[in-house]
Design brief:
about 400 residues, alpha/beta, Enolase-like, domain 1, TIM Barrel, 2 domains, ten-stranded mixed beta sheet, 13 helices, 15 strands, globular
């Protein structure tokens, strides 16, 4: 069984676009005809350039190799160009290709991926969703309105969710961490207050940021929202300050979650050694694939930390996160895009079962899902923007324009 063929599909995500502007799927085929699907999340360059990176990683490090030799192929990609360090673009490409290898291995053995490395430790997975606007609702208005988010949170709880995520603390900027403005602090507290009033003790609040703040600014914000007892305060400072995150964690009354922008077990090991981060959030399409994510989970277990796989991507990355979560004892909660309906579901011929706020384990071989190629190929991405983008404007001490979604 040798890896022989690669196809790359860059699929445009039609409005409302939850999960990003496009999804990058990879289709690997073995010489004996077994097909595996993967998804690349780390798209730091445009789709055409990312296609070239994916093709190069495959041709250089994987083509003609057995899909079983995942560690060997990882070491080749990780060390390429004499680097031996975590390059997010290369590791993003490898992540998608590696996930596809596991899909192939499961299909070859007629077993789901989690059965290949210890089996499942739970029969269903607790899930959470970001609070998204309703169809036709203006995102700019929704994301700045605590009452709208509170109403949406109440609806999600009625649908069975036991946790909801929101990030009202202001726009994300390329200019690095900053101090939150007074309007940012007030708005953040108002969101926590309204949502807590709406859901009571029926759901956890997950307070999201995306590395917006300096360590001191993050501590200020944590103290403002602590009275509403969020389950976590997510990535409060830039990901290139891993040691400073321990200082934030030491002074934050709210548990710290981090890791969606990290790649490889080595970067997560730095967080764990520094101490304080109790919830790790690997993104399966960026971290280096399923085996690297499993290594992260094993490291975390030794430090008393839990795993909450991050998702802002398509259904293959979700399916990979499900396989990981089923097999680790220190799983906390799984991010989902709502209940996986809409375009995410349309892209699959075999779908994920969602029931009362929980994901039920797929029992089909490999990842347990299949891409509907007709749907995927009918929605090619034709734009020139990236999957996600940050603001170029400096932070506004008056609060600035509200964040209008990713």
């Amino acid at each position: 069984m040798k890896l022989a063929g690669l196809d790359i599909l860059v699929v445009g995500n039609p409005p409302p676009g939850f999960g990003g502007r496009y999804f990058i799927f990879v289709k690997l085929t073995t010489a004996c005809g077994i097909v595996g699907w993967g998804e690349v999340y780390a798209a730091t360059v445009g789709p055409d350039a990312m296609r070239a990176v994916i093709a190069d990683v495959f041709a250089r490090h994987m083509e003609g190799e057995s899909p079983e030799n995942i560690e060997l192929m990882f070491r080749r990609a990780y060390s390429s160009g004499f680097t031996q360090r975590a390059d997010p673009t290369v590791m993003g490409a490898f992540s998608g290709l590696e996930i596809a290898c596991w899909d192939i291995l499961g299909k070859a053995r007629d077993r789901p991926v989690h059965a290949l490395w210890g089996g499942r430790v739970r029969d269903r997975l607790r899930a959470y969703t970001y609070l998204y606007p309703e169809p036709g609702e203006d995102p700019a208005t929704f994301y700045s309105d605590p009452d709208a988010s509170a109403a949406r949170a109440a609806r999600m709880v009625r649908e069975g969710f036991t946790a909801v995520k929101f990030d009202p603390a202001g726009a994300y900027t390329i200019r690095g961490g900053h101090q939150p403005s007074i309007p940012d602090l007030d708005r953040s507290e108002a969101f926590c207050k309204r949502i807590r009033e709406a859901v009571g003790d029926r759901a956890d609040l997950l307070f999201g940021t995306h590395g917006q703040f300096t360590p001191a600014g993050a501590i200020r914000l944590a103290r403002r929202i602590a009275r509403y007892d969020p389950l976590w305060f997510e990535e409060p400072i830039p990901p290139d300050l891993p040691l400073d995150l321990a200082r934030v964690a030491a002074q934050s009354p709210v548990p710290i979650a981090a890791g969606e922008r990290l790649t490889t077990a080595g970067e997560f090991a730095t967080l764990l050694r520094a101490g304080g981060v109790s919830i790790l959030q690997p993104s399966l399409g960026r971290v280096g694939g399923l085996l690297q994510a499993r290594k992260v989970a094993i490291l975390a277990e030794g430090f008393g930390a839990q795993i909450a796989p991050h998702l802002y991507a398509g259904p293959i990355a979700w399916a990979a996160a499900i396989q990981l979560a089923l097999s680790i004892p220190n799983f906390l909660i799984l991010e989902s895009i709502g209940s996986g309906a809409g375009f995410h579901a349309d892209l699959l011929t075999r779908r994920v079962t969602f029931e009362d706020g929980y994901v039920l384990p797929p029992d089909a071989p490999g990842l347990g899902v299949e891409i509907d190629e007709a749907v995927a190929r009918a929605h090619p991405w034709t734009g020139d923007r990236l999957h996600l983008e940050m603001s170029s404007d400096p932070p506004d001490p008056r609060g600035g324009a509200p964040f209008a979604g990713g």
